[in-house]
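Morning run. Coffee first, then this:
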Amino acid sequence: MQSGLTAYLDSVKSRDPAARSRWDVLFYPGVLALGLHRVAHWLWEGHLTFLARLVNHFARFLTGIDIHPGAKIGKRFFLDHGFSVIGESAEIGDDVTIYQHVTLGGTNPTTGVGGKRHPTLRDGVVVGSGAQILGPIVVGEGAKVGANSVVTKDVAPGSTVVGIPAKPVPLDTVHYSPGFLPYGTPCGEDCDPVRVRLGELEQEIEDLRKEVAVLKTQRQPQPKVKSA
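And here it is:
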């Protein structure tokens, strides 16, 4: 058990450059919330729903993080900073990282298989701060959701989506930032597909204006040279 806890704390430390030690990580709100959720989920699975809810409310009071006892969470999950909401039928794989103010929210409870109304995050997903992932959709393995995005459709494995509604980013984030990508958002490049296209159109218009100016200059009558 001790080796498992040590491995978990090391996995969090590797994703947070601000972490100074394992003791520092141990008192992170996200780590405390996950530990209490493990207890609440065990009680929930044992049909002790009242006790599970008590633990859930205590965890929310203590950390500001609301994880429903019914949510299924895999290994080495890291919720950085906190203030997030994870719904009852949400499923989270291994090595998933979520930043602050994220919602794994539900839609109509009659939709989905068996009433599932919350998202499924596969292994290695990164969700940036403020993102809203809504409905019984699937975020594929290794995918990244940019900060403040609103995701309402499935996300392909390994892709990066940003915007409202979230759309795939037209750039190679692995080439830009190899390894772990904090906040799920490539910084330093414009990754909004609509804004990128508008920039391309503006550049094309500018090039056309230059060509028209050259053509106008060429068509202007040249002054006649008087003979001596």
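The radius of gyration is 25 Å. Good start to the day.
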